[in-house]
TrEMBL record:
Record-linked InterPro entries: ExsA-like_N (IPR054015), Homeodomain-like_sf (IPR009057), HTH_AraC (IPR018060)
GO molecular function annotations of the record: DNA-binding transcription factor activity; sequence-specific DNA binding
HTH araC/xylS-type domain residues: 182-278
Protein's UniProt keywords contain Isomerase: no
Any one Pfam family match given in the protein's UniProt record, by short name: ExsA_N
Keyword terms, alphabetized: DNA-binding, Transcription, Transcription regulation
Name of the protein this chain belongs to: AraC-type DNA-binding protein
Length: 278
């Protein structure tokens, strides 16, 4: 699967990256787990459809009632159509320089959010709907006047969200300019119970598959496939012992495409089928 470099793929070939950039994204087909290298922080104002983003150690899913502010970096995106057979969101990209300018102008120099969460969920409301309508008139314009107006609109949405969410949002903005520090083991062990493929976890570690495998063997003294299978089967056994879920409910989350393969692997590991767990 090719890596999508965003927003570069949305920019015209004769244009360099700007500090602020608006793009209307529409599609008519579902896209599952696309690899995205996001080089600018980005608002994703979802209007129609559903979106899930998987980061190094967490994931988030939203519908058209919500929007996201995403931190730049590598992630996996799943974008699904709504009943209208369309997916639509308005994207607003902003550079770190533009963010720093805003923080200096409008906020106090407060401590960074130590949690380093790569997203902030925004509940869509009537103000945001009105804001997006006004933003539509600016999209795609090369006029210097429109560029200046977009700068004003950027400050507007930032100030509105600080007013709406208070210090929580302000702290998050400061976290966007702090250095990411996820370790290799943090990423691997955060995805034990995900259904991500090894190559997808390697991507989240910013490694090629071959480099990831070498690093993994040095760290864990076994191949990533064997290690992940063992951990996921152990987790599956524990879940089944709790008695609330059936094998058919969990095999996908354990990384198996069908129940039969999961049952065979489970029996090979524990000597009994998952249906026999009590």
């Amino acid at each position: 699967m090719a890596i999508e470099n965003i927003p570069e793929i949305y920019l015209k070939t004769n244009k360099s990256k700007k500090d602020l950039f608006v793009y209307d994204f529409k599609m008519t087909n579902n896209v599952v787990k696309s690899k995205v290298n996001l080089s600018m922080n980005m608002f994703s104002f979802l209007q129609v459809g559903k979106k899930q983003v998987h980061f190094a150690d967490t994931s988030i899913a939203v519908n058209k009632e919500q929007s996201l502010l995403l931190k730049k970096g590598n992630s996996l995106w799943t974008e699904l159509l709504d009943n209208e057979d369309i997916y639509y969101c308005k994207l607003l990209f902003f550079s770190e320089n533009k963010l720093i300018d805003f923080l200096i102008k409008h906020t106090s120099n407060i401590a960074s959010n130590k949690e380093e969460i790569p997203y902030f969920v925004i509940e869509n409301d009537t103000y945001i709907s009105s804001y997006l309508n006004s933003l539509s008139a600016i999209s795609g314009s090369d006029s210097i006047y429109m560029e200046n107006l977009l700068a004003v609109k950027f400050e507007e949405i930032m100030l509105y969200l600080i007013n709406k969410y208070g210090s929580k949002f302000e702290l998050y903005l400061y976290s966007l300019i702090s250095k990411e520090s996820f370790s290799f083991k943090n990423i691997v062990e955060s995805n034990i119970n995900s259904n991500l493929k090894i190559e997808e976890i390697a991507f989240l570690c910013n490694m090629s598959l071959s480099t990831f495998k070498r690093h993994f063997i040095n760290e864990y003294s076994m191949s990533p496939g064997k290690w992940l299978q063992d951990k996921r089967l152990q987790s599956a056994k524990k879940t089944l012992q709790e008695g609330t879920l059936k094998p058919s409910d969990i095999y996908l989350d354990c990384g198996y495409n069908n129940l039969s393969n999961f049952s065979v692997a489970f029996k090979n590991k524990f000597g009994i089928s998952p249906k026999e767990i009590k």
